[in-house]
Amino acid sequence: MKIKPFTDNLVFFDAEFSSLDANFGEIISLSMVKFSGEELYLELEFSGEYNDFVKEKVLPKLKGNKVSKEEAFKSIKEFLGDSKPYLISYVNQYDIIFLHKLLDKYEYVPYWLPIDFSTMLFSMGYDPEVLRNNDAKFLSDFEIDITKYKRHNALEDAKMLRDIYLKMFGK
Fold it and tell me: Is residue 162 part of a domain?
């Protein structure tokens, strides 16, 4: 069976968090990349504690131009408009929960049903951790040079998802 995407009304989404604990963690950076390639990248003000992974792998890749949650909401709403795109993230169980935490108080959320990229990989016969593990066969199958992306940077990760998706579906 050939996999055929339902729509191209997609936005590739990635976020970095202060912690993976949804009760305490918050988005510290997020990025959205439209199917067309248009990009949004935001770093959010945060004064809480960061876990050790974030301190080591994420914070060094931030640029430092922080916005408030309200400014982030306005930027996201302007970027997405009324199109209600499907958001695609690598492991949406985290990205979407934290996005809802950020946007729900403004009563604005993109289309309610996110698309999980790791499940797409699984359904195509790949271990969903191929990106995390830099799987040589996967990268070769889709001619992906993973070294051109800075991992654990929301913009780079969202761009990588889009690029891989386009190759997977011959777009």
Answer: yes
The whole-model pTM stands at 0.89
Q: Is residue 4 part of a domain?
A: no
Q: What is the pLDDT of residues 37-70, one digit of tens each?
A: 999 999 999 999 998 999 998 999 898 899 999 9
| pLDDT tens digits, 2-28 | 677 888 899 999 999 999 888 888 999
Q: Which of 158, 154, 166 is nearest to 16 (CA)?
A: 154
In a domain, 159, yes or no: yes
Q: Is 122 left (phi over 0), alpha (psi -120 to 50) or beta?
A: alpha
Q: Cβ atoms within 10 A of the Cβ of 67, count?
A: 14
Q: For the chain, how many structural domains are there in total? A: 1
